[in-house]
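Dear support,

I submitted the protein below through the web form. The confirmation email said the job was done, but the results page showed an empty box. After a refresh the structure appeared. I'm attaching both so you can tell me whether what I see now is the final result or a partial one.
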Amino acid sequence: LFALAPASVSLLAWTVLNSLLLAATAIALARLARFDIHRPAFWLLMAATGLFTPAQTAVRHGQTPVIAFGLVAVGSWLCCSARRHSGGGAHSGGGSGGGGGVLIGLGVAIKPQLALPYLMLDLWRRRGRRVLAAVAVLAGLTVLGVAVLHFTTPSWLGDLTRNLQLFQHDSAGDPTWINASRHQMLNLHVLLHSFTDNRQLVGVLVYAI
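What the results page shows now:
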């Protein structure tokens, strides 16, 4: 949707969306922690969060962590609110929170490496309705996305596989000494490649660890 609008309009809409979700995230986390959002300290903390460099980088460069985490935070707060109103308590198990599960599913679909651990935590806590709602949303969006790619760009899977290989071997994603900027990666591969250039051995060690 952002690509359909002029660049100036898209940038403004993206900035507003991220700012709103950043504020919603702070409020949702405060509610989950039962922190008084009317205290000046809370608003000072929220303003400082907006000045945090990763938050600004995500907004400026079109990255999605603020949106993904915002959806997870708000979804979790909605689920906890539903349990409180149903008499289950904020931290009890149970199957309430389907509506919040929809938001969590959206967050996983947007950035799974960030939001998926929260869904796995809900699965471990046996929050069935929330998990089912999230999985249903994730599955539906995945099928829709794959269908669009299949009919518009039939070679998408081969292109994706080739790009991943190039990224890991001949680009910024290369964890070996060949990549001069490898130190910027938060990756176990980088540490292990400090001792060996054998990619197969490092891959086995990473999975074993």
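Response: this is the final, complete result; the empty box was a page-load delay. The radius of gyration is 20 Å.
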